[in-house]
Hints:
By secondary structure, the protein is mainly alpha-helical. It is built from 7 helices and no strands.
Amino acid sequence: xxxxxxxxxxxxxxxxxxxxxxxxxxxxxxxxxxxxxxxxxxxxxxxxxxxxxxxxxxxxxxxxxxxxxxxxxxxxxxxxxxxxxxxxxxxxxxxxxxxxxxxxxxxxxxxxxxxxxxxxxxxxxxxxxxxxxxxxxxxxxxxxxxxxxxxxxxxxxxxxxxxxxxxxxxxxxxxxxxxxxxxxxxxxxxxxxxxxxxxxxxxxxxxxxxxxxxxxxxxxxxxxxxxxxxxxxxxxxxxxxxxxxxxxxxxxxxx
Length: 255
């Protein structure tokens, strides 16, 4: 679903938000599933812009405006708060199996798609940087090869005074020396690229481990709170039962 006016969007865009149909002090209703899906569709299209700018306020205003055009009246602050809540629930649902996660969090697939595309964009940036580095190395090697060819021409003129056997022997030694130098530079460049790749991969793994630990901590806190709530409910039920039994005993004694 393409948004026709998104190509005008930039970090300094001033969005004129249409007022709600009725100003009221009453609390707005909760987000419906249809409203949330419309919100996530718009947020997914703007996710790249969010990552490229530091001023997100105009973007939240734009999302609020587009939602209002579709009949959902939400302020920029409400849209921002809704996104934070969805991210929190998505992190909490990541430690369960996929079917159970979909039942507990119905927007799991939409959120997973947004974060997967974000990670893919990050990989693309790394690949472009590696490619640019390789092109620079190839250009430097080309310039070095041109310089070596010029030096060879000068050396060949000098070697014309030598005998045929000495000239061939010297040429072979020079060729082998140049060949070894080129191989050494190629090995160094390959090792540098491999080290960069490993560092990037290690950084990504560390980020995933941190995210997994954060999800586990959130799930542990939720379970502890749930156990405390159940314990309180059981205590209240026992007190009610004791009170009812005491009343029944008193009634029986009065009779």
